[in-house]
Amino acid sequence: MGGTSSKLPKDLLSEYQELTFLTKQEILLAHKIFSELQDKENGPYSSRVSMEKVLTLPELKSNPFKKRICHVFSTSDMKDGSLSFEDFLDLLSAFSDSATLEIKSHYAFRIFDFDDDGTLDSRDLEKLVNSLTGETDDTRLTTEEMRQLISNILEESDIDKDGTVNLSEFQHVISRSPDFVSSFKIVL
Fold first, then answer.
1. Which of 45, 65, 70, 71 is least surrounded by Cβ atoms within 10 Å, i.e. has the fewest?
2. 59 and 188 in contact (C-beta within 8 Å)?
3. Measured between alpha carbons, how far is 170 from 157 in angstroms, rounded to an integer?
4. What Å distances lie between residue 51 and 72, 89, 98, 134, 170, CA to CA?
5. Under DSSP, is residue 142 helix (H, G, I), strand (E, B) or coil?
6. Are the C-beta atoms of residues 148 and 159 closer than 8 Å to each other?
7. What is the C-alpha to C-alpha distance for residues 31 and 29, in angstroms, rounded to an integer?
8. Least confident segment among 57-66, 93-102, 121-130, 131-140
9. Tens of pLDDT, residues 172-185
């Protein structure tokens, strides 16, 4: 772990500090963790870490949106949820205590937009609720409960009444949720 391949050059460290909400210590810790997840036969900066390996991190293991989080932050052309070190830093930065409400709500919206169409429609909201409640028979809402809940969410959030929640509507709702910023975080 202390070898030269796991050392982050100072110029890159400074650049990452400027481009993220992370401190120097957080970036170095992220680099150490990322290096431990990497396949050793690949180079330290060009390598991606598979989604399966990222999901072994204790900070993500029990998150009901863990796979969506990887897909949203992954820049892989393969659309496989794998992360480069820069993707990993972006993820940690957006979930850091220092990230702004605007950044956090933007990424939360993208995570909840399961079909990536730029809106939260009833299908996205149903998946969101099922992710939070679990999809077992004893935790799943009945069809009527789900319909009523989605109707309530849209009534409260869908300002333009088009049957979906767009990013600005989502951010408006989040701005009235005082616990959102403190609960939307991952700490290494």
1. 45
2. yes
3. 7
4. 11, 15, 25, 21, 27
5. coil
6. no
7. 5
8. 131-140
9. 999 999 899 999 99
